Amino acid sequence: MKTLLSTKAWLWLLWIGLTLGLLGWFSYMLLQDSDPQLFMPGPLSAGHHQFADSCTVCHTDPLGGKEVIQEACFNCHKDERKKPFDSHPSTKFKDPRNADTLQNIDALHCMTCHTEHKPEITRKNGVTQPVDFCMHCHADIGEERVSHKEMAFTTCANGGCHNFHNNRDIYTDFLMKHQNEPELLAVRVVPERDLASALEEIMEYPHDKYPLESLTLDQADMPAGITLGDSVKHDWLTTSHAAAGVNCSACHLVAITEEVDPAWTDNPGDSACVNCHSLEQQRFEKGKHGMRLAAGLSPMSVNQAMLPMQSDAAHAELNCLSCHGAHTFDTRTAAVDACLSCHADEHSLAYEGSPHHRLWIEEQVGELPAGSGVSCATCHMPRLEFDVSEWSSRTGVDHNQSANLSPNTKMLRSSCLHCHGMGFAMDALADSNLIKNNFVGKPGVHVESLRLAQEDYDRAMAERQEADNSE
């Protein structure tokens, strides 16, 4: 008996010693500013993997719980989580009429459906709910819509069907507006950018520094002693910067602090771009390319990407100058060449030689009108209308290249429908093989959403007519 008690005592001492040792090691490693990934319970999802080296981006309070994480989610995604961009905003579930739905699923917290560090249950878009989670609230959908009767709840998120958040492109009324459209529309051009014509309406634009007038080389205001090479002269003079009165000092004269006078710097970086392109910078920091900058971290480098990338670009950093090279700022280069200099996935590599690429080449040589070519940016960085004041807006390029990436039905409204009919576009986006070869050929998949929308519309009209006749 004495030996048994002695053995237990030693085991307790060993356990206490190991516990203290582990605590000491963790404390030491934390104080040594070691790699935080050592303490992660599991890898991050594809949408957040860039933050693996900085836990505090989300865990702003080490002792905080669900509410701290919720605030972190909201800080980054609040603009997209409101009507009309979110079909299920929190306000929907705070409405007393929908309070009963919260008994089935806590739709007020992002973590309910998006739990990080759970690779074994994480699906596309970082979703960690089972594929049939829609049934928690829509179990009677077959009774509400006859067209959906006997459909399995595992099919809700199929291509051309439902997206929990932004579902605008497949609302019944939107689908009805695009019934019976041809594969190719008669007019196939994207909206024209109009920053230059909208500058007078943009209050934040520094009009006093950059009057809207064309500059010549003699007016270049670089300091004495700086010699411009012929290529730099040509690059600057042929850009819209020189045409809009943006002189050398606009980018190279940098104020480190408000108390110190601006000083000339040869390499101002992309911080100079914000003076005139704050909207583009804000949108850039919303996407995967710029999200680290928005969190106050170093820029993303190509070797951090999860897609296959060009090996010689591995250590390149992503900022404004990555695509818009200094002095040239050629949007044509940024729209294709800059993308392909990094991306080496199957879809990207198949772009050159594809029907879309041929249209792009024909536009560049003047065989097609402006806006009719299809570059990488045409689809992944579409031209949208942005408010610039309470009374005006402008059409610009959405630099958040992740905005319509997934689910890809978000491309319909912003990209595809400028050139294609709804039916053809939905089928193409649902065909994974067609996406891989960059849309060479016709879709091998057919989406039934247009037909279902027509059936629901016809049924609703018949019920209304019957009600009118019974009065």
What attributes does this structure have?
471 residues; two-stranded antiparallel ribbon; 22 helices; 4 strands; single chain; mainly alpha; globular
If you had to describe this structure to a student in words, what would you say it looks like?
By secondary structure, the chain is an all-alpha fold. 35% of the residues lie in helices and 3% in strands. It has 22 helices and 4 strands. It has helices spanning 2-31, 66-77, 90-94, 135-138, 141-144, 172-177, 195-198, 230-237, 240-243, 248-252, 278-284, 291-294, 320-323, 331-335, 337-340, 346-349, 355-364, 376-380, 411-414, 422-430, 432-436, 449-470; strands spanning 253-254, 263-264, 383-387, 393-397. The strands form 2 sheets. A two-stranded antiparallel sheet has the order 1-2. The chain has a two-stranded antiparallel sheet with strand order 3-4. The longest helix is centred in the N-terminal third of the chain and has 30 residues, at 2-31. The chain is globular, with a radius of gyration of 27 Å.
